[in-house]
Amino acid sequence: MWLLRLAWALAVLGIAAGSSPGPTVPPPDKASIFADLSSAELRAVRTFLMSRPELGLSPSRGGPLAKNTLFLVELLPPRKRLALRYLDQGGPRPRRQARAVVFFGGQAEPNITEFAVGPLPRPSSYRPLRFKGGRTVPFAARPMTQLEYELLHRTLAEAMEPLYRLLRDATGFWYHNCSQRCLTFSDIAPRGLAPGERRSWLVLQRFVEGFFLHPVGLEVLVDHRDPDPRRWAVQRLWYNGQYFSSPQELAERYERGTLAVARLAEPPLQQLFSSYEPRGRFATGTPTEVHGAKVCEPQGRRYHLRGNHLEYGGWSLAFRLRSSAGLQLFDLRFNGERLAYEVSVQEAIAFYGGHTPAAMQTKYMDAGWGMGSVTYELARGIDCPETATYLDAHHLYDTDGPVRFSRAICIFELPTGVPLRRHFDSDFQGGFHFYAGLEGQALVLRTTSTVYNYDYIWDFLLYPNGVMEAKVHATGFIHATFYTPQGRRYGSRVHSHVLGNLHTHLVHYKVDLDIAGTGNSFETMDVRFENISNPWSPGARWVAQLGEPGQGWEVAPTHMGLPTVLGDGPDPAPIPRRYHLAVTRHHENEPTSSSIYTQNDPWEPLVSFEGFIRNNETIEDQDLVAWVTVGFLHVPHAEDIPNTATPGNAVGFFLRPFNFFDEDPSVASRSPVIVRPLDPPTFSRLEIQRWTPASPGPCITPEPFTYNGTYRQE
């Protein structure tokens, strides 16, 4: 096993020896083996499983927590071996199957079981899926459900009754029996300090627009492990820097007048600091009341989309939007040659520091919050250009049927604003020999994940020169806690009673590269300096840079991120937080580096990435997978109000051809412009060569902005 730890090493997955068949582009219908389940297929799987008496399934919503429910249904991708046989060798089409996650909470020994259900579109059988090492999923590791949140709300409302006067007097809001002036809460994970626990710290906030920035100084620890909510209990409270054993103790301290009360000002009805309403003016007075620059397609779209098959320039790929973790590309090819079998988002994590118990406990692992299922509507002209193609998504995640998320994905061609390449060839006498340039453009495949306070914008960009970029922007509301003087060590005071807690973002990708076949090798190029003698000037010396470049595709992170040391706290072992890049052999029982169960059981994770790399396997001339971790440290500041802005908060990586082609493959583009003088040195006549129309023509269609924003069960 080889792990890359060098910040300045060049990572190249090289070509194995031997020839490969000529490149071909598969027909679009073949991409459908990777397509997400349709609404009809999701409904068919649910209907079939609900009809099986031995499973004893009940509806997800309503009723008791101690019951058997269907939590998640999504595509179970075909095994790679079978998919390649179908794509490349004319083999049989793989059976279409679903992955179904069932919570068996209504039995003596509750557990979670995953099933393969098929064949689709008319399922008739199911079988349990086995995890690596024969592991089982403990019931306490399950993600939170809407029902559990409703029961948690009831528990908290009852517990907060003794604190009505304190909350009303200090905040103007309260929790139980409220209508307009209500408190709400955000919950923290991991939920406890050891396996099997399910204890959540809840941060109480005023329920106003942008409530994430309105903590009131009260945090409550609730034990909700028992399947019977009547046995749930508040174990601890933290208020304004002090701990209390019960709500009654806190209420008594307030009534006796011995409590240090944090009194909050009344929030304004307009221009609340956490809202997007304009306030203030720019000093220059330049107009902002008119539309800015827009993306246009003057001669129409230059990409083809059929189902889940996308083509652009030399690129072709299949894509899907997993409810569990987000965007996933399959069969990524350039000029018909497969570059990668799979490129996909695996996990997004954020480790926080803080003085309050909730802040110090926060270690978010967003696959455990349904990162791929919270893909809400993209706004035309803001989230994506008006000219983009918008696609709906269907999720069955903690619901009693498929839910359609309108405009969850967008596809558009983006002018990069910088030439892909250009040169001005000066004659150094006031003229030139030629000018040539190729405008910069890329095709963007985008979705978003709104995981409570944070919004992630996920992009895959395809460039004409064979470069692919994976990128994620972080925006949305910061995860904030109540300000105390002791908290200044852990962040910035971004408002009067609000601390923006310091945290590290880490994002993990799987890159299953198949370069000229599945037999690949991995190497790094270390650049070093050498002091050598000058062969044409005896006695002189110079310092030269040396490196031995290979051939293949380069994995180049745009931001390495920071290694994270967690001490004695929960160690998210499935996340390769220690490695910027790790390369392993492909195994069918290692499809992902994390899971939806990691968030609530990071101590004994079902999927442990460390297990992937400790088997000491050879990675020479093998089917290899690169696991890429990128990230950044976020020290919140006042300018994160109301939301974190995208500039400076983006990370990702490039896949770049490295000595793979004879020349830049973008020479096949018909978009360059070449200018040559016909009568130097006067330069009164020019030859302008271009292969596109001389004028782009009108750009924008006068359609008004519309937005729906609903996502409903069908």
UniProtKB/TrEMBL annotation:
GO terms for cellular component: plasma membrane. GO terms for biological process: amine metabolic process; response to antibiotic. GO terms for molecular function: copper ion binding; diamine oxidase activity; primary methylamine oxidase activity; quinone binding. The modification 2',4',5'-topaquinone is found at residue 454. Residues 294-531, 578-666 form the Copper amine oxidase catalytic domain. InterPro entries: Cu_Am_Ox_Cu-bd, Cu_Am_ox_TPQ-bd, Cu_amine_oxidase, Cu_amine_oxidase_C, Cu_amine_oxidase_C_sf, Cu_amine_oxidase_N-reg, Cu_amine_oxidase_N2, Cu_amine_oxidase_N3. It is an enzyme of class 1 (oxidoreductase). Residues 1-18 form the signal peptide. The active site is at residues 366, 454. Its cofactor is Cu cation. Residues 41-125 form the Copper amine oxidase N2-terminal domain. It comes from the Eukaryota. Contains 1 topaquinone per subunit. Topaquinone (TPQ) is generated by copper-dependent autoxidation of a specific tyrosyl residue. Its EC number is 1.4.3.-. It holds the Pfam family Cu_amine_oxid. Residues 142-241 form the Copper amine oxidase N3-terminal domain. Keywords: Copper, Metal-binding, Oxidoreductase, Signal, TPQ. Belongs to the copper/topaquinone oxidase family. This is Amine oxidase. It comes from Herpetotheres cachinnans (Laughing falcon). The lineage of its organism: Eukaryota, Metazoa, Chordata, Craniata, Vertebrata. The gene is Aoc1.
